[in-house]
Amino acid sequence: MILTPTIMLSTSVYGFERDIVQICALLKELGYNVWNSHLGTIKVNPKLSNLENCLKAVEDCDLFLGIIRTQCGTGYIGNKNITFEEMKKAIELKKPYWFLVHRDVTFSRELFKKMEYPENVRFKDKKFFDPLCLEMYDFVIQSGTPVEARTGNWVQPYFTFEDIAIYLNTQFSDKDFINHLMNKEENNG
């Protein structure tokens, strides 16, 4: 049994710094060791890229918390978005994971579904809305898979930090539940 589980908070920083600090503080208060790039709590191997260091952290953590926002993380390495690659890695490794999605992402997804626009239309300014967030959301909810066949696809919408705090308290305050999830994963891995 792990006494202090380590949870990695996905690399989703720009314009979200204050909330990241609050999320990490809440998780620490609940008894978790928190890894997050913004706070500098991820071990950095200077011989690896930022993407490689973040993926190594996903491999080494016990739990993963992904956040899908209209701005997709801290950047790209080549054509790979660090935040999205972390999410894919956590799911691939079958880590116990949880996801939050900003309400603007789900609203935009529904709006874009109803709009008609040429296939070649691209968003030019990713400062306010990165369309990759829709791809992230669809990936996590397993869009395209029949609803009855989906598992592990819960993504909790939020608008305020209070929404986030309610969800995190509900998910992470029961350490017996978390230990059960981690032990189940260890026995299946």
Which key terms come to mind for this protein?
189 residues, alpha/beta, two-stranded antiparallel ribbon, 7 helices, 44% helix
Explain this structure to me?
The chain has 189 residues and is of the alpha/beta class. The protein has one domain: Rossmann fold (3-Layer(aba) Sandwich). It contains seven helices and seven strands, in the order E-H-E-H-E-E-E-H-E-H-H-E-H-H. The chain has helices spanning 17-29, 50-60, 82-92, 103-114, 132-141, 161-172, 175-188; strands at 6-9, 33-35, 63-68, 76-77, 80-81, 97-102, 156-158. The strands form two sheets. A five-stranded parallel sheet has the order 2-1-3-6-7, with helices on both faces. It has a two-stranded antiparallel sheet with strand order 4-5. Strand 1, helix 1 (17-29) and strand 2 form a beta-alpha-beta unit. The longest helix is centred in the C-terminal third of the chain and has 14 residues, at 175-188. The model has no long low-confidence stretch (mean pLDDT 86).
Write the layout of secondary structure elements.
Blueprint: E1 6-9, H1 17-29, E2 33-35, H2 50-60, E3 63-68, E4 76-77, E5 80-81, H3 82-92, E6 97-102, H4 103-114, H5 132-141, E7 156-158, H6 161-172, H7 175-188
Parallel strand pairs: 1-2, 1-3, 3-6, 6-7
Antiparallel strand pairs: 4-5
Helix pairs in contact: 1-6, 2-3
